[in-house]
Amino acid sequence: MDLFKNFADIKAVQKLEQLARTPYNLAASTALSPERLAAYRVSSCGFDFLYGTQRVDAQVMQALQELADQARLVEQFKAMKSGAVMNRIIGYDSEERQVLHTACRDIFTDKPLSPEETAQAKEQLDRLKKFLADLDKGMICNTKGESFTTMVQVGIGGSDLGPRALYLALKRYCQPGRKACFIANVDPDDAAAVLAELDLSRTLINVVSKSGTTLETLTNEELVRSALTAAGLDPARHMIAVTGAGSPMDDPEKYLAAFHMYDYIGGRYSATSMVGGVTLAFALGYENFLELLRGANAADQTGEQDNITENLPLLMALLGIWNRNFLGHNTVAVLPYSQALLRFPAHLQQCDMESNGKQVSRFGESVQWKTGTIVWGEPGTNGQHAFYQLLHQGSEIVPAEFIGFRQSQYQEDITIKGTTSQQKLLANMLAQSLALALGRVHENPNKSFAGNRPSSLLIADRLTPYSMGALLALYENKIALQGFCWNINSFDQEGVQLGKVLANRILSELAEEKEGERLSPDAPELSLIKAAGLEKK
Ligand SMILES: O=P(O)(O)OC[C@H]1O[C@](O)(CO)[C@@H](O)[C@@H]1O
Fold first, then answer.
1. Ligand 1 center–CA 495 separation, angstroms
2. From the CA of 212, how far away is ligand 1's center (Å)?
3. Ligand 1 mean position to 42 CA, how many Å?
4. What span, in angstroms and rounded, lies between the C-alpha atoms of 348 and 472?
């Protein structure tokens, strides 16, 4: 495909390499002038993005725009949204799929970019709306005629992390008498702890797996089924499913209701499909889920702008590439100053690292440049009392992405010494960004801060379904745009397969399956089973 180009062959890359020899010094006395902080600011889909505390200047910004243009990033993004087969490795066996999670939220126009897929998304939304209405009207209820109050989502990876992060972020908006819980880990204690808290008779179990083959999810499905049976309940009245059309789990007979997602939606990009939709709409209400989609759609539209100062996900992507490929920083910390976003960094870890943790280009060649960044993070201010020491004075420079909101969600606050808790929270976020940039000169070396450490700030008025949807899609789009720039396939995950194969071999051995399927006596799996003390006596 002539849209694909190797990163190293892009002219702007050489220019950026030159510029990276003398990057902007954030610790210089006049570095953070009012003019700079006002100029390095972009507003989009309800967020203000402040990047005056990144190590960029006008020349770098110009070169990053050239990089975007020469790599045809926006064209690739539009091609993705319009249904081009972006999930592929040319010349090799690969998934060969479209990448159309954006179609799930392109539902607010008469002219969606991918009409067929948006029609499928709308069909699923209509079915969900009807299901929820039937629950409200009491047409679907337990055997005693009582309503369901809780939905437990059983799924893992993309079938858990995004939906869970969004639910926790928006719990404030739960409908009265509704809540959601999540079981992901095959660790039986995960399920036991969740189930112990529930009245199963008032609970719906939502089993979510795109492939319908994931070991953890299928195991937990059986575990929950047996818990229902043990409680004298009929699983057929309590269990619903979300799965890929045609997957082994796609058997409506087994479930009270079943919803579909499609192979053109990657697991880690599926939170705005039925994978997130069923649980979120049950707990938060259908209208709030639509608001989330509206916010995500706004971020998808922003991603079509050519100019990096009008295209926030592109700007975020390019600043990340500047830090990764040109300034040589290996990790990025995502630091939400919002307790509700506590699992958002975990979701981004999958979304980003499973997408861009690749070393083969879309031409099937080994890449000669750095790709995916290590993503991690925790909410502030808690993180300040944990790992920020390393951010300020450690030998590793970690670019930080701060996220904050001017107002709290619950609006229950207290003024102490003239400021509210929300102001204290935000003051800390701004202070951290400044401290990283400016540093401090001190005669005692142990008390001095070198500064000149990059960060950016993403600020909106409030964490609502709309702003959460926008935030989610800004990051999803940032990640895809970075993958396009690195010329890697951000939409497959071959790197998770080997571990699954080996786990299955170990499990066959532990299950003492038939002779022909047992491991040979010198197999490393067998030696490790013995060394770990897991051998059957
Ligand atoms: O939804 P599924 O098919 O159960 O997959 C769960 C997760 O497993 C993975 O394939 C990785 O093992 C993820 O990409 C995916 O989100």
1. 12
2. 9
3. 35
4. 9
Start-to-end CA distance of the chain, whole Å, equals 57
Q: Which two tokens stand for residue 506?
A: 């170990």
Place of tokens 């190293």: 8
Domain count, the chain: 3
Last residue within a domain, chosen from 259, 293, 327: 293
Which amino acid type is present at position 9?
D
CATH of the domain at 64: 3.40.50.10490
Find the domain containing 313 and state its range.
Answer: 7-97+308-486
Residue 2 counted as domain residue: no
How confident is the model over 195-208, as pLDDT tens digits? 999 999 999 999 99
What residues are paired with 14 via a beta bridge? none
- Residues 283 and 145 occupy one common structural domain: yes
* For ligand 1, atom 2: residue with the closest CA: 209
Q: What is the pLDDT of residues 450-506, one digit of tens each?
A: 999 999 999 999 999 999 999 999 999 999 999 999 999 999 999 999 999 999 999
536 phi/psi in degrees, rounded to 5: -75, 135
Catalytic residue selected from 291, 354, 401, 476? 354
Q: Is 500 a catalytic residue?
A: yes
Contacts of 503 (CB under 8 A, 6+ apart): 215
Reference 216, options 535, 504, 510, 520; nearest CA is: 504
| End-of-domain residue from the set 270, 293, 316 | 293
| DSSP 8-state assignment for residue 495 | G
Measured from the Cα of 247, ligand 1's closest atom is 3
Cα–Cα distance between 32 and 38 in angstroms, integer? Answer: 10
The SS3 call for residue 195 is helix
Per annotation, catalytic residue among 494, 500, 517, 530: 500
Pairing of strands 203-209, 239-244: parallel
Same domain, 477 and 500: no
Q: Does the annotation count 354 as an active-site position?
A: yes
pLDDT digits (tens, 9 = 90+) for 282-320: 999 999 999 999 999 999 999 999 999 999 999 999 999
